């Protein structure tokens, strides 16, 4: 790295790594899109960003699905890891590395963290007897399970559990209760949102039992050093991906400088693994803990939990084809407060994209730029002195960056979008109120100023909205003739240059029109 990159502040962000036991679904797409928007935002803000994603390929769930499909777990993982990569490509996910936990380097890395945990005296051999959920890949205490009317015993997330009894290595999690509580206190931003933090603090205050960290009844996984009869519990290896991905255990690796992670983005169902087990493993191994773990909510299709058996699993490729990638990205990030559960349905996405994108932002850009095109030969006009109205809208646009930064620093992506769309709304009121189409005859000098101010506000909106809608905003910056090296947040401080020749404006957001129902045709 040159001096310039090494002096920039770093930002390391990760998604959870998905189980490739099936094709990616909208929940995976949602997490990838949100994490991508956070990563792009920091890049545009001048940070040296590393963004890791990938697939979590070991564990019983993979073994059982592979058996059903008549393939090996590795074949199943390879097929579906390919689908996850394709999804990332389709959705414009700007990851720096896609890690697969079946990679030899990851096995070596996980064995090294195990050795360090063992060296600190936190791993011992015993035998496990208790409940296990294959769907959650989680051990549960008896009092966390309930037997339903169907006589099936289920864990706290509603998935069936089975009785497991076998020789097993244990991690001394019980020894970490106080250290974890101290961590939550000394690093108050360690867990977000606050509701999740409270949930974890009371879970840990309730006492921690030692954790079974190996199995002997199957061999698909990372082998325990010096005891190859055991493979590690899948979560030990899964969590370790976050350090393998940046070169662990080679601390001379060029990417190791990114540790500790700035934020792990995960779903609310796996907060316990990330906010309890992971920091405890790291402390045992003498590795610094991440700065923050942020849990987003779950997406539901019309209020129902998606499941293969209900048949309402939403395919992210189909959604991208139907609505457009940037429309989908915008919808998910604007509609659902990040951290809460949300609903997806056709009417909501059409309403959002037609109102916010096609009408409010698209038309504003189209109307102002085509007026510059038709009446000024496509040349950004020279403004006169700014009126109070001009100053007010420019000031509101100038304030967006600070608001967006504050929101994105705590993963409040929807709040950043709210701040930007407040300016979109205000700019529309400004444009309608100033009526530049009428000024063309009554006060041409004033019209130039109004068009200049509008173009400048659209430029700022487009620069800021890039992290959520990279392609659409690139198009918008193209029609504003903004050079490639003037699209980051540092460029917000310079105004658009009068005299700039603009290309003919092309519409950026088509309206969504319902495909005609063939049954309705006579
Ligand atoms: O949990 N809405 O993998 P996974 C929103 N391999 N997010 C959802 C969702 C939904 N409907 N369904 C799942 C795993 N997710 C582990 C992670 S990390 C070291 C190992 C989220 O494929 C889920 O919360 O079941 C998780 O963050 C991610 O998708 C992958 O889920």
Short note summarizing the structure:
With 522 residues, the protein is an alpha/beta fold. Helix content is 48%, strand content 14%.
Describe this structure in words.
It is an enzyme of class 6 (ligase). It comes from Afipia carboxydohydrogena (Pseudomonas carboxydohydrogena). InterPro entries: aa-tRNA-synth_I_CS, Anticodon_Met, Met-tRNA_synth, Met-tRNA_synth_2, Methionyl/Leucyl_tRNA_Synth, MetRS_core, Rossmann-like_a/b/a_fold, tRNAsynth_Ia_anticodon-bd. It is found in: Cytoplasm. It is a single chain. This protein is an alpha/beta fold and 522 residues long. The chain contains 18 helices and 17 strands. The strands form 5 sheets. It has a 6-stranded parallel beta sheet with strand order 3-2-1-14-15-9, sandwiched between helices. Strands 5-4-8-10 form a 4-stranded antiparallel beta sheet, with helices on one face. The chain has a 3-stranded antiparallel beta sheet with strand order 11-13-12. α2 links the parallel β1 and β2. 44% of the residues are buried. Bound molecules: ligand ME8. The site of ligand ME8 has 19 residues, from α2, α8 and β14.
Shape: elongated
Instruction: Give me the Rg, rounded.
Output: 26 Å
The helicity comes to 40-55%
* Low-pLDDT residue spans: none
Strand composition percent? 5-15%
Distance between the termini: 66 Å
| Ligand species | ligand ME8
Main sheet attributes: strand count, strand direction, barrel closure: 6 strands, parallel
How would you write the strand order of the largest sheet? 3-2-1-14-15-9
Q: How many beta strands in the DSSP annotation?
A: 17
Mean pLDDT: 95
Question: What is the overall number of helices?
Answer: 18
Structural class: alpha/beta
């Amino acid at each position: 790295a040159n001096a310039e990159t090494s002096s920039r502040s770093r930002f390391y962000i990760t998604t959870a790594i998905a189980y490739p036991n099936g094709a990616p679904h909208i929940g995976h797409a949602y997490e990838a899109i949100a994490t991508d928007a956070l990563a792009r935002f920091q890049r545009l803000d001048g940070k040296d960003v590393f963004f890791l994603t990938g697939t979590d390929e070991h564990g019983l769930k993979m073994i059982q699905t592979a058996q059903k499909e008549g393939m090996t777990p590795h074949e199943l993982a390879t097929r579906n890891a390919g689908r996850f990569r394709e999804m990332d490509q389709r959705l414009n996910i700007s990851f720096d590395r896609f890690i697969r936990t079946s990679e030899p380097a990851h096995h070596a890395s996980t064995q090294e963290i195990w050795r360090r945990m063992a060296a600190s005296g936190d791993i011992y051999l015993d035998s496990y007897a208790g409940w296990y959920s294959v769907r959650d890949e989680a051990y549960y205490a008896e009092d966390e399970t309930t037997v339903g009317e169907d006589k099936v015993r289920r864990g706290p997330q509603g998935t069936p559990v089975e009785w497991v009894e076998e020789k097993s290595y244990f991690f001394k999690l019980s020894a970490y209760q106080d250290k974890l509580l101290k961590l939550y206190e000394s690093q108050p931003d360690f867990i977000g949102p606050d509701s999740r933090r409270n949930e974890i603090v009371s879970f840990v205050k309730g006492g921690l039992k030692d954790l079974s960290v190996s199995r002997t009844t199957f061999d698909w996984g990372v082998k325990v050093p010096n005891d190859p009869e055991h493979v590690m519990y899948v979560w030990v290896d899964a969590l370790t991906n976050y350090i393998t991905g940046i070169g662990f255990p080679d601390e001379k690796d060029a990417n190791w400088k990114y540790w500790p992670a700035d934020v792990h983005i995960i779903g609310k169902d796996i907060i316990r693994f990330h906010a309890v087990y992971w920091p405890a493993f790291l402390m045992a191994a003498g590795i610094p803990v991440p700065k923050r773990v942020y849990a987003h909510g779950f997406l539901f299709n019309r209020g129902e939990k998606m499941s293969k058996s209900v048949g309402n699993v939403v395919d992210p490729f189909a959604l991208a084809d139907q609505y457009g990638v940037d429309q989908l990205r915008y919808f998910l990030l604007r509609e659902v407060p990040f951290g809460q559960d949300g609903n997806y349905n056709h009417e909501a996405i059409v309403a959002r994209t037609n109102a916010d994108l096609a009408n409010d932002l698209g038309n504003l850009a189209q109307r102002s730029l085509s007026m510059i095109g038709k009446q000024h030969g496509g040349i950004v006009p020279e403004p006169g002195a700014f009126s109070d109205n001009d100053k007010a809208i420019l000031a509101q646009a100038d304030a967006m960056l600070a608001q967006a930064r504050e929101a994105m620093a705590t993963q409040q992506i929807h709040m950043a979008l709210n701040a930007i769309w407040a300016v979109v709304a205000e700019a529309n009121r400004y444009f309608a109120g100033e009526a530049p189409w009428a000024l063309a005859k009554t006060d041409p000098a004033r019209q130039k100023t109004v068009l200049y101010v509008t173009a400048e506000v659209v430029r700022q909106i487009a620069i800021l909205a890039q992290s959520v809608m990279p392609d659409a905003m690139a198009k918008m910056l193209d029609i504003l003739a903004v050079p490639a090296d003037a699209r980051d947040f540092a460029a917000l401080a310079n105004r658009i240059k009068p005299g700039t020749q603009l290309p003919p404006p092309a519409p950026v957001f088509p309206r969504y029109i319902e495909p005609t129902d063939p049954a309705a045709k006579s």
